[in-house]
Amino acid sequence: MLTRAKSFRVGDCFLPELKQHGYDGEFWQKSSSPTQRYKFPLDGCALFYKTSRLQLLESDTIRYEDSQGLKLHQGGQICRFKDVDAKQDFVVVNTHLKAKSGAINEKLRVLQIRQLLQRINTVQKRSSTPTILCGDLNADPLSETYSILHENFVSVYSLVCPCEPPHRANELDVLEFCDAVTDGGAPAEPLFTTWKFRSKEGERQRTIDYIWFNTQNKLVPQRRWSTPSQTTIGPNALPSALYPSDHLPIMCEFRWKASESD
Fold first, then answer.
1. Which residues does UniProt call coiled coil (predicted)?
2. Element (H, E) at 136
3. Computed from CA positions of residues 104, 105, 106, 111, in that sequence, does the dihedral angle turn out positive or negative?
4. So what's the pLDDT on residue 73?
5. Is 202 left (phi over 0), alpha (psi -120 to 50) or beta?
6. Beta pairing partners, 23
7. Averaged pLDDT, groups of 10, the chain, 262 residues long
8. Which of 146, 192, 231, 238 has fewest C-beta within 10 Å?
9. pLDDT at 38
10. Do the beta carbons of residue 222 and residue 257 sit within 8 Å?
11. What is the C-alpha to C-alpha distance for residues 106 and 166, in angstroms, rounded to an integer?
12. Which residues make Cβ contacts (< 8 Å) with residue 1, sequence separation at least 6?
């Protein structure tokens, strides 16, 4: 899944290439974006899935509203899939919340996340349906937005894993196994998921990107991507030749529990 994916990148680059490998995708486009200042198409959220493994049962989008009911530019995707091998349904949510710090913007993010949770409940069909929620929340682990989500979900990166191998960007064994995990609780997250230098703000490191799951179901994390250190990235921060976005990629593999005791 991608947040802030550019529409031309999805239609002309990602989707044609991924379809050659058996994937299909969904894209939700914002109504307005800072990308327009530079004459780029609107960005949004994109979700790709392997058609031989997953069947798309339902695809919904949400565009958030302010307290007066006026439409905002932010929103996201809510998709329900069937795992054709496991014969189990689950929901995947991808969202991008209001950017910028400050109390006013945090109040908007709180409003947005409450709207999203309400919409998720309508798509889940029943409360036991496994749900994975991903996105750029623009909210750090000490925020009210994070706290609200933590009442309903567990962040994959707040889990305490048995081991933490060093990050090596060119190898797949940078995944941390999460077979025996416990909820570390807030705010045990990566030191940062975005790190950049800006002319007005200077250097900024923030943790604002997350993968969440609800714990009362059969779909559980198995292993997650170990985020790189500041030393690995280098002194010039993000983006770079090795990491071409100002946000780090995060990833988690999930598995179906064989039994309730698993």
1. none
2. strand 131-136
3. positive
4. 94
5. left
6. 50
7. 59 86 94 79 91 96 96 96 95 96 97 96 78 96 95 85 44 44 56 90 93 84 86 93 91 84 61
8. 231
9. 76
10. no
11. 34
12. 45, 46, 47, 48, 92, 94, 134, 135
Q: What is the DSSP letter of 216?
A: S
pLDDT of residue 169: 33
Phi, psi for residue 258 in degrees, rounded to 5 = -70, -30
Distance CA 123, CA 78 (A): 8
Please report the pLDDT score of residue 126 as a whole number. Answer: 63
- Does an H or E element contain 177, and which? strand 175-177
Dihedral sign for Cα atoms in the order 14, 251, 77, 218: positive
pLDDT at 75: 97
Q: Quick one: which of 131, 135, 129, 178 has its CA closest to 158?
A: 178
Q: Residue 109: what residue type?
A: R
The amino acid at residue 62 is I
CA distances to 37, 59, 191, 194, 247 from 202, in Å? 22, 40, 18, 13, 16
* Strand arrangement of the beta sheet that strand 175-177 belongs to: 175-177, 219-225, 252-256
pLDDT of residue 166: 38
